[in-house]
Write a structure and sequence with these properties.
Elements (H helix, E strand, L loop, with lengths): L1 E2 L2 H12 L7 E4 L9 H11 L5 H13 L5 H11 L6 H21 L6 H8 L4 E9 H10 L6 E7 L3 H12 L6 E5 L2 H9 L3 E5 L5 H6 E2 L2 E2 L8
Parallel strand pairs: 1-7, 2-3, 2-5, 3-4, 5-6, 6-8
Helix pairs in contact: 2-3, 2-5, 4-5, 8-9
Length: 229
């Protein structure tokens, strides 16, 4: 089991009773945290790998859904290996374009995680929000503008920047101490990014991260209607 020990227990208690918290910075992942879009991306991965056979396509989707928060540029070489195909920079770039073309509108049309817009609106005046995601930078910028929440975030950071690096750089730039920052995510990469920077982590529970729910000992929420800070 992975845990933050005392801080995890303290944060859990604060969430449950609605106590005030000292958080100045809140980092959020996007897929599975702002929008329930992981399934949409799984469908897109399955679709572009169908030419390699239905079994390979389904395995690709299963891997994606079990590894949310990882960049497609890191996943694609693995998927070509599954398909028995030698990957190259050109092939990865080609399939990344195919994926992006399929997935953009699917993500925009995905359901909102309940309460997230209200949470952002309520706290944007007294908290600094940063969006940290494995989605490519230009793509996430466009998506966030289309869905109308870009003004809530001080900065939006996408791939190729790693989440742990993004958190570290933002904490240094803002001079906010680690004990006054938290990360809300739904994947092991989100958790690892938080742990590596010694900041609080809250897991947003989804149907795709049930294994992680069993593995981690940390505060967990179903949606933002549960979260009072």
């Amino acid at each position: 089991m992975l845990a933050f020990g005392f801080l995890a227990n303290l944060m859990e208690a604060m969430i449950s009773i609605g106590a005030s918290c000292p958080w100045e910075i809140i980092f959020l992942d996007f897929d599975g945290v702002v929008k329930d879009s992981l399934a949409a991306k799984g469908e897109a991965f399955e679709q572009i790998f169908l030419p390699f056979g239905a079994d390979i396509a389904k395995e690709v989707r299963r891997h994606h859904e079990a590894n949310g928060g990882v960049s497609r540029f890191d996943k694609l070489p693995l998927y070509f290996a599954m398909a028995g195909t030698q990957s190259s920079e050109e092939l990865i770039a080609e399939y990344a374009r195919k994926f992006s073309n399929l997935v953009m509108q699917k993500v925009v049309d995905s359901q909102w995680v309940p309460g997230v817009r209200q949470f952002l609106a309520k706290h944007s005046a007294d908290k600094q929000f940063f969006l940290i995601t494995a989605t490519p930078q230009e793509e996430i910028q466009e998506i966030v503008e289309i869905i109308g929440i870009n003004h809530f975030f001080i900065k939006i950071v996408g791939a190729p920047v790693k989440k742990a690096d993004a958190i570290h750089e933002i904490l240094e730039a803002t001079s906010v101490s680690a004990d006054r920052a938290m990360m809300i995510g739904d994947s092991i990469s989100d958790y690892q990014g938080a742990v590596s920077n010694n900041i609080m982590f809250i897991l947003r529970k989804t149907s795709l991260n049930r294994g992680l729910q069993q593995e981690l000992i940390c505060p967990m929420i179903d949606d933002f209607c549960d979260l009072t800070i």
